[in-house]
């Protein structure tokens, strides 16, 4: 029995394994728990093993590599075309085994423990920010029902919250006043938790050489730099910057046929959080571009003359993503492009 590829369909407690030979025929078809799976693969000859990139896949991929196997993670959307007929766990595992053996398949790099820790820190901070926004909106809604309004942004509401709670003539009932006090305490607690997470990210960034190089890029701060490191490491999963930008969903969707090219809006595929961070960084670049006298500033100013503001921001985000990939992949410092000859 010669095994060419193995596919593992991951579950919470059960794992389905299918192995294919050189003709694509199924030679092994088994169901395991996690401990049984690792014990079984430890006794196999080093093999090509594929799994879908999902929760728990990075841990299992690292364990399989320690056993000597060539473990690879595949995005779920690239496995789907190989699923035959109806769907079940064994058919999914067979589709993964077939997909992982394709020479032109795209894979997800297995993250290190440091990357997973940094990614978890970003996810916690993002959840806290969303929760803070929900609390602020709820406070605004309750106050609006009592005829109390504030300007746009949280700053004005924050500066007047103590005054609102102490004012006895603002038509707030004792029950509503108590409820708003609890929301105000929750808001302040969330602010503190977000600051703690941001300080930890800043500390990690200050100790990492790759993060420091990324932070030299305009619009790339500690959040963007550390999130990029957590997501792609050194960038070797992509052959060029355009592939990284496409993975972030910052390139146009295409629907072309009959020799007619039709480009639509950006694809919005890939890492939503990192794409949002790059777009926020692009907004900062566009806002301060009048102070940039280098080639990047010249490029953005010319772009602003012929494109709408939102398109300019997305184009700048695409540019920043490509620059970030080049800095990571080549391990070099950022250099502002030279001025173009007019």
**Which whole number gives the mean pLDDT?**
90
Helix/sheet category:
alpha/beta
Q: Characterize the main sheet.
A: 5 strands, mixed
Q: Kindly, what is the distance between the CA atoms of the first and last residues, rounded to a whole number of angstroms?
A: 67 Å
Strand order of the largest sheet: 3-2-1-4-5
- Report the radius of gyration as a whole number of Å: 25 Å
Helices and strands, in N-to-C order?
EEEHEHEHHHHHHHHEEHHH
The number of helical elements comes to 13
Write down the overall geometry: globular
* Assembly state: single chain
Helix proportion: 55-70%
Characterization of this structure:
The protein has helices at residues 34-42, 57-66, 76-79, 89-100, 113-145, 154-166, 174-207, 209-214, 222-232, 241-247, 272-287, 295-306, 309-330, and strands at 5-9, 15-20, 26-32, 48-52, 70-74, 252-254, 263-266. It is an alpha/beta fold and 342 residues long. The protein folds into three domains: 5-100, YqgF/RNase H-like domain (Nucleotidyltransferase, domain 5), CATH 3.30.420.140; 113-207; 210-330, no CATH class. The strands form two sheets. It has a five-stranded mixed beta sheet. Helix 5 (113-145) runs antiparallel to helix 7 (174-207), helix 5 (113-145) packs across helix 9 (222-232) and helix 11 (272-287) packs across helix 13.
Q: Nutshell version of this structure?
A:
Helix content is 55%, strand content 10%. The chain has helices at residues 34-42, 57-66, 76-79, 89-100, 113-145, 154-166, 174-207, 209-214, 222-232, 241-247, 272-287, 295-306, 309-330, and strands at residues 5-9, 15-20, 26-32, 48-52, 70-74, 252-254, 263-266. A five-stranded mixed beta sheet has the order 3-2-1-4-5. The chain has a two-stranded antiparallel sheet with strand order 6-7.
């Amino acid at each position: 029995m010669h095994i060419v590829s193995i596919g593992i369909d991951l579950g919470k407690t059960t794992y389905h394994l299918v192995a294919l030979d050189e003709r694509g025929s199924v030679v092994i078809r088994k169901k395991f728990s996690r401990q049984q799976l690792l014990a079984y693969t430890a006794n196999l000859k080093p093999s090509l093993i594929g799994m879908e990139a999902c929760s728990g896949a990075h841990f299992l991929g690292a364990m399989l590599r320690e056993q000597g196997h060539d473990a690879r993670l595949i995005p779920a959307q690239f496995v789907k075309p190989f699923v035959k007929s109806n769907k079940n766990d064994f058919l999914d595992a067979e589709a993964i085994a077939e997909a992982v053996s394709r020479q032109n398949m795209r894979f997800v790099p297995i993250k290190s423990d440091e990357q997973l820790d940094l990614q978890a820190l970003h996810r916690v901070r993002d959840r806290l920010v969303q929760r803070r926004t929900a609390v602020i909106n709820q406070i605004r809604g309750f106050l609006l029902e009592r005829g109390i309004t504030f300007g746009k942004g949280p700053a004005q509401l924050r500066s007047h919250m103590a005054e609102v709670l102490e004012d006895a003539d603002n038509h707030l009932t004792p029950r509503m006043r108590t409820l708003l006090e609890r929301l105000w305490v929750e808001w302040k607690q969330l602010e503190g938790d977000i600051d703690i997470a941001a300080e930890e990210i800043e500390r990690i960034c200050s100790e990492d050489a790759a993060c420091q190089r990324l932070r030299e890029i305009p619009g790339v701060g500690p959040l963007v730099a550390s999130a990029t490191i957590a997501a792609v490491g050194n960038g070797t999963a992509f052959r060029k910057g355009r592939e990284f930008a496409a993975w972030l969903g910052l390139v146009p969707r295409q629907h072309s046929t009959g020799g007619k090219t039709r480009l639509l809006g950006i694809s919005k595929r890939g890492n939503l959080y990192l794409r949002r961070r790059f777009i926020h960084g692009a907004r900062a670049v566009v806002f301060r571009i009048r102070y940039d006298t280098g080639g990047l500033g010249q490029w953005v100013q010319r772009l602003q003359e012929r494109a709408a503001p939102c398109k300019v921001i997305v184009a700048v985000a695409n540019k920043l993503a490509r620059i970030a990939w080049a800095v990571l992949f080549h391990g070099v410092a950022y250099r502002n492009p030279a001025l173009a000859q007019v």
